Amino acid sequence: MKTxxxxxxxxxxxxxxxxxxxxxxxxxxxxxxxxxASISDIESIDILIVGAPTYGGxxxxxxxxxxxxISAGALNGIDVMTFDTRLPARxxxxxxxxxGKIANxxxxxxxxxxxxxxxxxxxxxxxxxxxxxxxxxxxAKKIVNRRG
Length: 148
Ligand SMILES: Cc1cc2nc3c(=O)[nH]c(=O)nc-3n(C[C@H](O)[C@H](O)[C@H](O)COP(=O)(O)O)c2cc1C
Known about the structure:
The chain is α/β, with parallel strands linked by helices.
């Protein structure tokens, strides 16, 4: 089973979550920053996991750009999972979160959506809330490794 994890991170928190997910998933796993990933990287994968920091309720530009380069139907038959990092403050809910927006985009490209999750940072630059790295690992294991 081949898994590609594509993420962006400005202050390193989303990167820690991406790496935790990468360590948790069994099989052939590749982790790439969105700015370094290209369309050829999604050829012949079984699972695509995309994550971003939430900025103004949306993913950061490198993730948007990565997704915008995927052609319609290119994710047919590929399981997709999305995640973001976000603040726990109540007011940020008004804008929505990156993971949901990424999920909608990947579904529109043919992806088979498996899971959407948010992980909390305690401030814009972090740190991650205690336990989030372990929660990311458990989340990924539960969803990816159940496929066998
Ligand atoms: C310009 C800016 C806009 C942000 N907008 C949101 C937001 O709409 N919702 C939210 O939950 N967090 C927001 N945040 C907090 C980010 O989600 C946080 O900086 C990010 O999770 C850190 O991830 P990173 O360390 O991987 O860069 C914002 C941060 C910045 C700097």
